[in-house]
Design goal:
With 325 residues, this protein is mainly alpha-helical. It contains twelve helices and five strands.
Length: 325
Amino acid sequence: MGGTLWMAWLHTRDDAFRSWALSSAEKLAPRQYDTGTHDLGFLFYPSWVTAWRLTGDGVWRAGALRAADSLIQRYNPRGRFIRAWGALTDQRNEGRVIIDTMMNLDLLAFASRQTGDAKYLDIAVEHTKTTQRVFPRPDGSTPHVFDFDPDSGAPIGPNTVQGYSPTSCWSRGQAWGLYGFTTMYRRTGNGEFLATARRLADFAVRALTPDHVPVWDYRAPHQPHDVKDASAGAITACGRRDLSAATGRRSYREVALRLLTALAETCLTRNSARAEAVVARCTRNRPNEDGIEISLPYADYYLLEGVLRVLRPRDVDRAIDLSTV
């Protein structure tokens, strides 16, 4: 993953990592035009946007903007949401929204800043408001999926794919929401987005087990003695570090440090089924028995980002822009 390699380069200044990061990014070039996924922010922000910020080469900026153009084609103006899955012609998934999409919106904020065209950020804000309206429960937990009628935009109700049930709380999804709402607060200054991020963060910390490595779903029936998802811990740590900077509250930073310490002490690996992985004990999709306590690339990336947010925040700011409007 290009973003992981950029984090490694920031820490070591070893130009081998820089070369590998650029090579990894180049392989994504065909995906600039991919309208069949919401994941373009995940793909292009930590690779192409970061490449542009660290090298100044406009090729990376232009490609990231093309990816933003592809992403906004998935916007449903009737329901004011970006659909998650399926090709634009796939009617089965037309009304599916997932909490993960909050992490793709910063690509749209970047596009508006770079082009001066408000349409990208406007779509990101509308999607955030829709997510804010239907996902968080009164206690701050979230479902993985929320379904809408794609034709009218009317809400249907919560659902799940990677969580235990529509009424449970998939821990990685909760982490995506926490980080994503905090990012959207930084890009807009909207205090309601910050308040939502804090609600999600507060629920997650209440649900943590004493070892500070999240279970795969905070409401699965066997928790707290269930399989773990270290990736949820790494993402949560980054989001809480962001919240600490946004609010000035040290408690968010303190929990982030405990999460990063727990991952470093209990979840690192040199013997992984995934070649050259850093973090083990991640769970991809428990309901499908797909990837139970394995290594996942986003765990590696967000662990490195989280550590560097603590040790070298100025370098991370150069790479991914931690500014607030």
